Fold these 2 entries.
Entry 1:
Amino acid sequence: MSDKPIYVSKPFLPPLEEFTPYLEQIWSNKTLTNGGPFHQQLEKALCKYLGVDHIALFNNGTIALITALQAMKIKGEVITTPYSFVATAHSLLWNGIEPVFVDIDPNTLNLDPSKIEAAITSKTTAIMPVHCYGRPCDVEAIQEIADRHNLKVIYDAAHAFGVKCHCGSVLNHGDLSVLSFHATKVFNTFEGGAVVCSDVEIKNLINQLKNFGFVDEVTVDIAGINGKMSEVNAAFGLAQLNHIDDALEARKKVDALYRFQLKNVNGIKCLEDAGEKVTNYSYFPILVDETYSLSRDQLYQKLKNNNIYSRRYFYPLISDFPMYKTLRSSSFSNLPVAHRLSKQVLCLPMYPDLDSDDVIRITGLIKNNL
Ligand code: T4K
């Protein structure tokens, strides 16, 4: 057993000496939070980098999701995917909304647009798809359905930093998109998140909502929350943004090496290569089917025994957690694809400075060479 643990993700850090001057500036100007100068700079820099109109920074992606729903006044039922991190559906519950789970597409693992319409009822107000693993949803098909039924679309784009589709940033689709900048993400601010939108009035409302609902010093006209990103987090984001292209390039190389090493391994399937400019290589999921020599969980354990900590994102399905299990849409028969794939998926370590030797060791264990 190797003594060096390899985790599913490792935060991407800019050189410490590049971060120190930001800290010195914070120490000198004493603005620690509440929309200070680095917060404003990061919002502008991200709009430019991502090619979007407006960004409202948050202290994490979950609060950003909750606030996005509140800003759009979403109520009733929202159609979403069971194949995601639990925060997706929790953001609905926190708004008193019932999630209605719809099955996923077996190739993309994203919400299957062909199954959405059957789940729409008179209570449906919105669709909340997830660009799972940073691979774009079928944004056009989803928008067409939303337009036909007068529904809002709020993308959980937690994995989709920098992801592009045929017409530029994927974040420009839907009414709002929500990013996560958690330590494990492609772009991180330790903890953090953002709402992306194209309407300045919505951006102003979101700014109000993330600051308790204050209009001015003495007026609060809506029950907001504290969703503000601090200056240290924003400064870290600025320092990291200078290196993001190199980090994406390094991820791409890791992705290519995994694909090369795992081609033709019986029972192991990589998701279709999403191609240049589309994905951000944020995760490396493989599907372990019944023709492989071990079960998915046995392979997970074998890697763990060798100090390699892969993760079963996303198992269990959200719809199997106790607060969702009794919903009608959570039934096994409604979600056969999601159930099958959540039992097959294993996310292998993926981060910019993952050594080629480590990828070869991991894939060697999978190929049973080691
Ligand atoms: N929507 C979607 C689709 C999401 O995936 C997420 C979050 C959200 C919404 C909510 O966004 P946030 O509110 O989180 O901004 C991790 C993350 O905590 C979570 O952000 C992420 N999705 C989810 C997919 O993964 P865990 O419980 O797996 O994290 P953890 O602590 O086990 O970390 C995984 C590995 O990363 C560790 O084994 C070691 C390494 N690691 C982790 C941290 C935190 C480090 O090396 N350093 C670190 O600081 O949830």
Entry 2:
Amino acid sequence: MADHLVVVIDGPAGAGKSTVAKMAAKRLGFAFMDTGAMYRALTVKALRAKLNLEDEQALIKLAEVTHIDLVNEAGKPLKVTLDGEDVSETIRSTDVTNNTFYIARTPGVRHVMLEWQRRMGREQSMVGDGRDLGTVVFPDAAYKFYLDADFDIRCQRRIDELKAKGQPVDEQALKADLAERDHKDFTRKAGPLKKADDAIIIDSTSMSIDEVVDLIVRRVQSKA
Ligand code: C5P
């Protein structure tokens, strides 16, 4: 390994991980690995196939015959492909968001994802964001961050994001969904959201995105 640097950012939904990881990757000249997008893409395929999402064996089989790619192109948003199809927009729908936990809680599926993610980490320097990257997937990552923010702030950021896209927002439903996702992420048996002992905690409650990115980039550059 060695000549590639892996930087991981774990934390709860809505803490700003993806935005921060993407910007930090760009500034460092690294690839960006959005692991949530991978779980979401597999959810799209399972929903389309009308699989019983409680059927673990069916989900594992599906993962084994699926090809998910994260395409990093300079100056463009991350492209997520599912068996060659661009699903970058589809994976953000509420239906997909609310069903991803079936995929994420299945140990056999997490194992397949882990193999994909480790392969990407061997091929290039990257900044990845997720839930279990620092604890399970890359326990030896060069840099580990745990990005958190108060629940109300995380909700507000999601609300602002949707409003900026011109989408209708049911604020009460959004808060309930986020609370439920937190609960599921923290309590599932396989790959729960957990701060790695050696991760640096960043509480972004009163920080701007740029401040968080700066902190991460400076930390990596100071030791690289
Ligand atoms: O980060 P994002 O909200 O896109 O992730 C979607 C879902 O995928 C999360 O709710 C989480 O349950 C799951 N996930 C995971 N492990 C990761 C990344 C995401 O279980 N490394």
